[in-house]
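Subject: Protein entry, chain in single-letter code together with its fold tokens

Area: Proteins and the way their chains fold up in space.

Attached in line: The record itself begins immediately under this heading.
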Amino acid sequence: MKAELLCLIDRFSSHKTTILSLFDENKDFQSLCHEYFVCVQCLNQWKLSFEKKDKLVQEYSERKIALENELLLFFKKAEQG
């Protein structure tokens, strides 16, 4: 399984079936998943390596939340029909 999928399923486990379905069917969702995965990876790396870079960590933390909200919209639309 792709790392992007594992990352999303780890974060949004209650939407696993929807994630797998959307990832197979929707290129925009695939791109969003990849962007979210990269964001999470960068954020984790910066938290460990650049503790003094609080502003950058804050910006990516906010971006992560925005991406999570966008992902939830995909789930909602897909689960409604």
In short: The CA atoms of residues 2 and 34 lie 10 Å apart. The mean pLDDT is 91.
